Amino acid sequence: MRLRQVRRVAQGLGVVLAFLGVAGIGMTHVIYPGLHCYACPWAVTVCPVGLLQNLVIARTVPLYFVGALTLYGVALGRGWCGWFCPFGTLNDLLAFRRRRFGKGLTATKFAVLVGTVIVAWRVADSWFCKLCPEASLVASLPYLGMGLAQVNTPFLIHMGTLAGTLVGMVLVARFWCRYLCPMGALLSLFNRVSLFGLRVEGERCTACGVCGRVCPMGIEPHRDINSTDCIKCGRCVTGCPTRALSLGFSLPGKEGRDPLRRPRARPRADGVSSHQ
Question: Residue 99, by phi and psi: left (phi above 0), alpha (psi -120 to 50) or beta?
Fold first, then answer.
């Protein structure tokens, strides 16, 4: 089975597990390894961002949260975003265009994460949940359809954030994952040390740039391999014409887990620099 097909199966499994409550299974204490609202009527797992806010509000040391997050991070890093997260799958389905802009803006997801924690601490309320577009999709709309919610100001705010996010997803590939997702920011802290990751063979790489052109996150995998923005989706692996990139489990210090260095410029006889 090809890499793309395996990934689609994994994404489908992520969606099934996210909405497993439709089968009558009750809530569990398992933290979902992606963004999924625990207020969803069919959710059986805990939203990591929602849990983090509630632990901050309760002034509780989040040992279980940190332990689970570390386990997820060391295992796959942001691979969960590219292979398992239901909202990430929606990002893929709406990625009709691959426009790139504001590479420096990818740090905004860390600002969202820090802001979420600070607001929870200061006002003792889970404000991110009141704005989260994923919650708008899997909680607000289903409850409205079930007659358990009404169109009021909080509902309209949810619809506004959802609409804005969907437009962003259509215009920019992986818009939410690139710029806004606090869960992606948390998992990205483990991206370079996770067991699951990209490897590059320098002897095969011709620096043709194909991997960068097919990357939905707008990075150059061979130059910034397993960066904080890499979701390890494998598109660069299948797109590489020389098969210089591979994806799988290996130790972080394994050969090929480091970015390729750019060729150094060397002076010519006429004093003008040239590249090796």
Answer: beta
Residue ranges of the chain that CATH labels 3.30.70.20: 196-249
How far is 50 from 127, CA to CA, in rounded Å? 9
Counted residue by residue, the chain has a size of 276
Q: Which CATH number fits domain 196-249: 3.30.70.20, 1.10.579.10, 1.10.8.640, 3.30.930.10?
A: 3.30.70.20
Mean pLDDT by 10 residues, the chain (276 residues): 90 95 90 94 95 95 93 97 95 77 80 97 95 96 94 96 95 92 96 94 91 91 91 95 94 79 49 44
Which of 206, 235, 238 lies closest to 223, judged by CA? 206
Name the amino acid, one letter, at 9.
V
pLDDT at 262: 57
The pTM of the full predicted model, rounded to 2 decimals, is 0.88
Q: Rounded to 5 degrees, what are φ and ψ at 223?
A: -95, -25
Q: How far apart are CA 247 and CA 29, in angstroms?
A: 31
DSSP E strand boundaries for 142-220: 196-200
**Which residues fall within 8 angstroms of residue 8, CB to CB, at 6 or more apart?**
none
Fill in the amino acid letter for 109: K
Closest CA to 72 of 45, 91, 98: 45
